Amino acid sequence: LVDYRAEFSKWWVMEFKTVKFPSQGTVFDYYIDPETKKFEPWSKLIPQFEFDPEMPLQ
């Protein structure tokens, strides 16, 4: 299995130079907020997972 995400991200940033993309991370680390039209990290949208060892597995 080959992971081409880093290479694709570099290509995307070079191909779309007029887009002001965040300097950290890859194109896969961000989404475009529909209200502000700005790149935001997915971590802002998706809550962090916390494992509860007391919860039984189903």
- Strand tally is 2
| Relative helix content | 25-40%
Termini Cα gap:
30 Å
User: Sheet with the most strands?
Assistant: 2 strands, antiparallel
**Average pLDDT value?**
92
Shape assignment = flat
Q: Classify the beta-strand content into a percent band.
A: 5-15%
Number of helices: 2
Uncertain stretches: none
Order of helices and strands: HEEH
Calculate Rg over CA atoms: 16 Å
Decide which structural class fits the backbone.
alpha+beta
The order of strands across the largest sheet is: 1-2
Domain Dynein heavy chain AAA 5 extension: 3-43
InterPro entries: Dynein_AAA5_ext (IPR041466)
Protein name: Dynein heavy chain AAA 5 extension domain-containing protein
Pfam family, one: Dynein_AAA_lid
Give a verbal description of the structure:
Residues 3-43 form the Dynein heavy chain AAA 5 extension domain. Pfam families: Dynein_AAA_lid. It is a single chain. With 58 residues, the chain is α+β, with helices and mostly antiparallel strands. The protein has a domain at 22-46. It has helices at 5-15, 42-45, and strands at 30-32, 39-41. A hairpin with a 6-residue loop joins strand 1 and strand 2 (39-41). The protein starts with a helix and ends in a 13-residue tail after the last helix.
Summary tags:
58 residues, alpha+beta, two-stranded antiparallel sheet, flat, Dynein heavy chain AAA 5 extension domain-containing protein
Helix and strand arrangement:
Blueprint: H1 5-15, E1 30-32, E2 39-41, H2 42-45
Antiparallel strand pairs: 1-2
